UniProtKB/TrEMBL annotation:
InterPro entries, alphabetized: 6-PGluconate_DH-like_C_sf (IPR008927), NAD(P)-bd_dom_sf (IPR036291), UDP-Glc/GDP-Man (IPR017476), UDP-Glc/GDP-Man_DH_C (IPR014027), UDP-Glc/GDP-Man_DH_C_sf (IPR036220), UDP-Glc/GDP-Man_DH_dimer (IPR014026), UDP-Glc/GDP-Man_DH_N (IPR001732), UDPglc_DH_euk (IPR028356)
Residue intervals of the UDP-glucose/GDP-mannose dehydrogenase C-terminal domain: 328-452
Keywords: NAD, Oxidoreductase
CC terms in the record's Gene Ontology section: nucleus
Highest taxon of source: Eukaryota
Catalyzed reactions per annotation: UDP-alpha-D-glucose + 2 NAD(+) + H2O = UDP-alpha-D-glucuronate + 2 NADH + 3 H(+)
Protein name: UDP-glucose 6-dehydrogenase
Gene: LOC102579334
Record pathway: Nucleotide-sugar biosynthesis; UDP-alpha-D-glucuronate biosynthesis; UDP-alpha-D-glucuronate from UDP-alpha-D-glucose: step 1/1
Recorded GO MF terms: NAD binding; UDP-glucose 6-dehydrogenase activity
Gene3D superfamilies found in the cross-reference section: Cytochrome c1, transmembrane anchor, C-terminal, NAD(P)-binding Rossmann-like Domain
Active site: 272
Length: 480
């Protein structure tokens, strides 16, 4: 029986390994982590992450050929293939701070593999890492090898949260990069055989190591660039009376552009896009490619602009002040169908409104009050470094209320901001919400999910990203 061990039981390690175990009953899969709480949650009825379809496959495989454990060294030493799926956050201090990927967790995993291994191993980079990381890992492993041979493969993960199981069951492609040596090619073949249990062969792409590593950063940069492009257009739509949904529909109908991933929004979030583009920018700078670095930096700058623009729109529409006003925030997760709040645009929007002294009443179906309070107390990039957690100031504590229902959040509110596209928000009783709000009642739709005409008929003043402005808003000061 082939034995697989995955180091890191997070958003990637957990679902990817559950799917390998589910699709390959003859393979034993152990997912290990240094976090005792996370492993305990994987072994309980309350999994540590919310992902549609995940619970079903975990319960089918757990205890049979899928194990979650804190016995990291034991499972690593027994495995033939080791996936490393640890976090690779943006560095917060030292050389490259604010841009470069922090490989501390990766390096410590590699040193531990070298310490405990007793037979030859294939080590797979599942985490997203800077191009050429495999070379560094190879050095760490071979300099501490005691005669053991390692093959390093790059097998980046392309799943998106909220659709992780669907994406893993039916991936557009699986990418495997390895050394162009007989040993490297044999290792590629071994990993290919694992995926071949359910992925058609023509969707398994094999490349050299550096292409695989770079393709992951490139893919995320291209995806984020589409969103910043459509978001930049949304600002121009508001200024000209064009409708961004009509523009993106018309543009996306061109087969060369394609229609997916062109939804204007309050800004992209999630743990990957910003971090990976910053990492790409840093790599370009280190290679003397200033123009290329500046090109990709713009994707993030437009994203920051979009989030600021949204806050400014809320404040300027409400007579240039939200001080003391209750604003309902519907949705805090960075997208629907996940409880993940890493880099969610809701953090920037809420901080912006709190900064203008608003009272916020927040509701998200999957995010806990504890998480929301933590997120709003943290500095940028610190979500992966909890050591820097700042206690929330008593004033901000008072300005913040987290509730468990959209109707409670909106009761007596002056304004409502829709920040995550949860399906349940589309079917809310907006007449009831309107009746219970202060007048004039404002809706700011950061996801373009509501029927703005219907809401206007009810009596709301409505702002939707990139849509022609309500007569009311047109008279308000321009938003930069
Ligand atoms: P995560 O923070 O959810 O999980 C990482 C886990 O690794 C944590 O539970 C942590 O305790 C554990 N860990 C860290 N160092 C360890 C060590 N030395 N030994 C054992 N466990 C250790 O992160 P994630 O979202 O799963 O992302 C992991 C990697 O995958 C990142 O590089 C990320 O960029 C990449 N990625 C993420 C996604 C996504 O949607 N989240 C998608 C594709 C790729
Ligand atoms: C992304 C990549 O899609 C995935 O391939 C990679 O493995 C990890 O990073 P993820 O961040 O989980 O996945 O979600 P994604 O669906 O890409 O959404 C990212 C952000 O962009 C979200 O905040 C989402 O709301 C936003 N978005 C997405 C838009 O604003 N408009 C769109 O058209 C699509």
């Amino acid at each position: 029986m082939v034995k697989i061990c995955c180091i890191g039981a997070g958003y990637v390690g957990g679902p990817t390994m559950a799917v390998i175990a589910f699709k390959c009953p003859a393979i034993e899969v152990a997912v290990v982590d240094i976090s005792v709480a996370r492993i305990a949650a994987w072994n309980s009825d309350q999994l540590p992450i919310y992902e549609p379809g995940l619970e079903d496959i975990v319960t089918q495989c757990r205890g049979k050929n899928l194990f979650f454990s804190t016995e990291v060294e034991k499972h690593v030493s027994e495995a033939d293939i080791i996936f490393v799926s640890v976090n690779t956050p943006t560095k917060t201090r030292g050389l490259g701070a604010g841009k470069a990927a922090d490989l501390t967790y990766w390096e410590s995993a590699a040193r531990m593999i070298a310490d405990v291994s007793k037979n030859d191993k294939i080590v797979v980079e599942k985490s997203t890492v800077p191009v050429k990381t495999a070379e560094a890992i190879e050095k760490i492993l071979t300099h501490n090898s005691n005669g053991i041979k390692y093959q390093i493969l790059s097998n980046p993960e392309f799943l998106a949260e909220g659709t992780a199981i669907q994406d893993l069951f039916n991936p557009d492609r699986v990418l495997i990069g390895g050394r162009e040596t007989p040993g490297g090619q044999k290792a590629i073949q071994t990993l290919k055989e694992v995926y071949a249990h359910w992925v058609p062969e023509d969707r398994i792409i094999c490349t050299n190591l550096w292409s695989a590593e770079l393709s992951k950063l490139a893919a995320n940069a291209f995806l984020a660039q589409r969103i910043s492009s459509v978001n930049a257009m949304s600002a121009l739509c508001e200024a000209t009376g064009a409708d961004v949904t009509q523009v993106s529909h018309a543009v996306g109908k061109d087969m060369r552009v394609g229609s997916k991933f062109l939804n204007a929004s309050v800004g992209f979030g999630g743990s990957c896009f910003q971090k990976d583009i910053l990492s790409l920018v840093y790599i370009c700078e280190c290679n003397g490619l200033k123009e290329v670095a500046n090109y990709w930096k713009q994707v993030i700058q437009v994203n920051d602009y979009q989030k600021n623009r949204f806050v400014n729109r809320v404040v300027s529409s409400m007579f240039n002040t939200v001080s003391g006003k209750k604003i309902a925030i519907l949705g805090f997760a960075f997208k629907k169908d996940t409880g993940d709040t890493r880099e969610t645009p809701a953090i920037d929007v809420c901080k912006g409104l709190l900064g203008d002294n608003a009272n916020l009443s927040i509701y998200d179906p999957q995010v806990t009050e504890d998480q929301i309070r933590k997120d709003l107390s943290m500095r940028k990039f610190d979500w992966d470094n909890p050591i820097h957690l700042q206690p929330m100031s008593p004033t901000v504590m008072k300005q913040l209320n987290v509730v468990w229902d959209a109707y409670a959040a909106t009761k007596d509110a002056h304004g409502l901001c829709l920040l995550t596209e949860w399906d349940e928000f589309k079917t809310l009783d907006f007449k009831k919400i309107y009746d219970n709000m202060q007048k004039p009642a404002f809706v700011f739709d950061g996801r373009n999910i509501i029927d703005e005409q219907k809401l206007r008929e009810i009596g709301f003043i409505v702002y939707s990203i990139g849509k022609p402005l309500d007569g009311w808003l047109k008279d308000m000061p321009a938003v930069a």
